[in-house]
Amino acid sequence: MSSLGSAGDKPFTQAQYLDVLDTLRQTPDGNLAVYIHVPFCHVRCLYCACDTTVTHSLEKVDQYLDALEREMGMVTERIGRRRPIQQLHVGGGTPNHLNEPQLARLMEIIESHFTLTPESCASIECNPRRASVGQLELIHGLGFKRISFGVQDLNADVQRAIGRVQSLNMVRDVFLTARQIGFQSINLDLVYGLPFQTPRGFQTTLDQVLDLGPDRVACFSYAHDPARRPHQHAIDTAHLPSPAEKLALFHRAVHTFTEAGYRWVGLDLFVLEDDELYTAQVAGRLYRNALGYTTSADRQVLAFGPSGTAELGDALIRNESDLRVWQMRVNNGQFPVAWGRRLDETDRRRRQAMLHLMCNLKLPASSAADLDHEYEQLCRKAEQGLVEISDEGIRLTPQGRYILHGLCSDQDDRGDCGANQWRFRMPS
Ligand code: SF4
Known about the structure:
The chain is an alpha/beta fold. It folds into 2 domains: 3-342, tm_1862 like domain (pyruvate-formate lyase- activating enzyme); 346-420, Arc Repressor Mutant, subunit A (Orthogonal Bundle). It has helices spanning 14-26, 58-79, 100-113, 133-141, 156-162, 168-181, 199-212, 243-259, 276-282, 323-331, 345-360, 373-380, 398-413, and strands spanning 3-7, 10-13, 32-38, 40-41, 53-54, 83-92, 114-126, 146-152, 185-192, 216-221, 263-265, 269-271, 287-289, 292-294, 300-304, 309-312, 315-319, 337-342, 362-364, 387-390, 393-396. The strands form 6 sheets. The protein has a 9-stranded mixed β-sheet, with helices on both faces. Helix 3 (100-113) links the parallel strand 6 and strand 7 (114-126). The radius of gyration is 21 Å and the shape is globular. Mean pLDDT is 89; it is low at 1-9 and 409-428. Bound molecules: iron/sulfur cluster (SF4). Iron/sulfur cluster is lined by residues 41, 44-45, 48, 50, 52, 92-94, 127, 150. It catalyses: coproporphyrinogen III + 2 S-adenosyl-L-methionine = protoporphyrinogen IX + 2 5'-deoxyadenosine + 2 L-methionine + 2 CO2. [4Fe-4S] cluster binds at residues 41, 45, 48.
């Protein structure tokens, strides 16, 4: 049997992948999610950490859609066709780089392989610079209830330095249009740690974003890693904030949004008080999977498109990142897996403990052994006021939450499909 990819010295074969899909076939309907990665953008932003390709070729996008249809056909042939899905997320890249007929075709492909029910939640990431009234109406009409717009920073110096110029007026117009059209939830994404970000400038961005009244705001950490992302060489490190300044920027975001009534969820998300994610966090049942935060502990995530990352039962599986390699494998009738790993019992328990800490900000005493030596390291953080220890376990203090945020952001940035989410580096 050919090897489709490897995790260190452990090959992940086609047989293993088929085995994972066969297990899913026998799993009752009711907790399935689908992620689709659209790997195209109009231009490359200099800070970008995503798997994407700049193209202006309609044909290239059409060929991607052909391969996507084939990949979905291969998977659903194995797990059963038109199974209901609870969650659909289309990310990228820039999903709204597709033109209107291509967006409509994307939805047709999805709906011919899966069933979206009235309860399904469909979300999509959009670049405001590519959005038009007609396009947003189409996206809403296709059934997307949640939409996310990348804002990053509204300061002109920052925007020039990261190669992403979009005025407040334009972002406001797009946001208000989406509101008027009737999207249930509008999310805005910010990035901190970018060149030329200053406390004053970032505060202005935070205030302007707040004025729009988004339902959720994500505030991501910029990771400068030109060795892995050569286009980041164009960012002059002399203009990047220091680690302390960067932490202060995030602190500003926390302060601004929480003062305005938003609730801080997990590592980097701010939501309204009645948001289900906040309710879940308060109840200690917030989770995180390849799609982000979720209220469902055992959701199975199928992923399609280059670099799509699936979480199926005890397996993590990542597709080929390179568009041409992904396409070639699919067109050759292969599952385009680049990396896969089945978690053993130790991995699972450790991961569960880490996710509990990241999402619910506490670790029950019963999970202490699952964290191995890191549990002792965490306990030592009590002296610095970063954690509180009781008979029930460990609870992160607000200060500790900032530290964990930095740690887990580092891990996410490594792009190894969540495998490190349960192996973080402890600061000294
Ligand atoms: S729009 Fe997003 S995915 Fe595309 S280049 Fe910019 S940051 Fe990267």
